[in-house]
Fold this sequence. Notes:
Elements: E1 4-5, E2 22-23, H1 35-42, H2 51-62, E3 71-75, H3 82-91, E4 95-99, H4 106-112, E5 115-118, E6 136-139, E7 143-145, E8 148-150, H5 155-158, E9 164-165, H6 172-189
Parallel strand pairs: 1-2, 3-4, 3-5, 5-6, 6-9
Antiparallel strand pairs: 7-8
Helix pairs in contact: 2-3, 2-6
Amino acid sequence: MEVEVVEDEEADGIISLGKREVEIPPELDVEGLSPENLGLLVYGKPRFFPPTPYATIKILEFYGFNLEGKTCAIVGRSVRVGKPLSLLVLMKNGTPIIAHTKTQNLMSITRQSDFVFLCAGIGEYFGREYFNERSVVVDISTVYRDGRIIGDAKFGEVKDFVRAITPVPGGVGRITPLVLFENLFMKILHR
């Protein structure tokens, strides 16, 4: 695969729009997903917060949820969401458990967790049996199926059972662009 290197002396920030064949200079990568920027996140010194994972943290903070000392199941291991989210959970002193669709005893892991972050991208898979009444569920997935946008949770079945759940659409997806623009704004301020 040929990689296109993007450079623009007048740009304050660049987003890849999910294109892996584009290499963006780390200082312009306002998505915070370049290898260098993810490395800075690993060391707890992020240049930019990856927008979708950070949007989940912002939503929880807005509603007064604290991750400190809590067990946080992250169902998904992508570079865009699952892996950086695990690092943000650690930064908030939560205990991340990274799982995925091939994890054995997945239901047991999610049922025992205080927070469950769904980012597997499998659409309306996780029903009531995957949670407990104290679960806080953050559904991050955006799946297009039969002309609808859905998340990984069976929202209608789960919403009155768990402590809290974010909707899809209308939850994390609404906050993600705001975080992206916050990153860009911070980049412009610190030129």
